[in-house]
Amino acid sequence: MIRTILAASLALAATAAPASAQQRGGAPGAFDFYVLALSWSPGFCEVSDRARERDQCAPGAGLGFVVHGLWPQNERGYPTDCGPAGRVPSRAAVESVRGLFPDEGLARYQWRKHGTCSGLSPTDYFAAVKTAREKVVVPPAFAKPDRPQVWTPIDLERAFVAANPGLRADMMGVVCRRSALTEVRICMDKDLKGFRSCPEVDRGACRVRQIDVNAVR
């Protein structure tokens, strides 16, 4: 079961990685800002090859936006796997973000790949994840849509901007795959007190004319 969860977590990371160059290793805490990545479960579950292996995609799960990760990011590129590899989150640390990540395997994987670059302890990193998620208001249209919708990327960004004072379109990126919405990435200052411009993340956003927003199931 643990291997299955880890494999699915790796698949999610592979299909929705930051749109910039990965820089493996590096000094923990040496980054410019954070990216909060919110995975749209119905879209991810439609396009993922491992959807059947994930509780997130189980019939009746009823999940919309969930946390994919909180990623330390640089103006160009992003660090990963900053170690030390033996530093693992406690059960209590992981439990503190239950309901934010779709499963424990993804939470632990995100700590290893991205959290180790934050310069924080596992407990403080997951506290930062919670703070970042609480900072973002999901627009009402995405609360629990019971029917498919079609949006343009700019209108989807505008919906998030309207729901979050201080957020602008150049501070986020909408991600799609095969025209299906899979993720929204929002850039935040290192102290998580405000949003900030992130040209590289914005440039990596979806460029299709219309995005299919699948219904929550």
Structure characterization notes:
The chain has one domain: Ribonuclease T2-like (Ribonuclease Rh, Chain A, Alpha-Beta Complex). It is built from 7 helices and 8 strands. The chain has 217 residues and is α+β, with helices and mostly antiparallel strands. Helix 1 crosses helix 4. Helices cover 30% and strands 20% of the residues. It starts with a helix and ends with a strand. It has a 4-stranded antiparallel β-sheet with strand order 3-2-7-6. Strands 1-4 form a two-stranded parallel ribbon. A two-stranded antiparallel sheet has the order 5-8. The protein is globular, with a radius of gyration of 16 Å.
Task: List its traits.
single chain, 217 residues, alpha+beta, Ribonuclease Rh, Chain A, two-stranded parallel sheet
Question: Strand content of the residues, in percent?
Answer: 15-25%
- The level 1 CATH classification is Alpha Beta
Estimate the global geometry from the Cα principal axes: globular
CATH topology (level 3) name: Ribonuclease Rh, Chain A
List the helices and strands and how they pair.
Elements: H1 2-15, E1 22-24, E2 33-40, H2 41-47, E3 65-73, E4 78-80, H3 91-95, H4 104-113, H5 122-135, E5 149-151, H6 153-163, E6 172-177, E7 180-188, H7 199-203, E8 211-213
Parallel strand pairs: 1-4
Antiparallel strand pairs: 2-3, 2-7, 5-8, 6-7
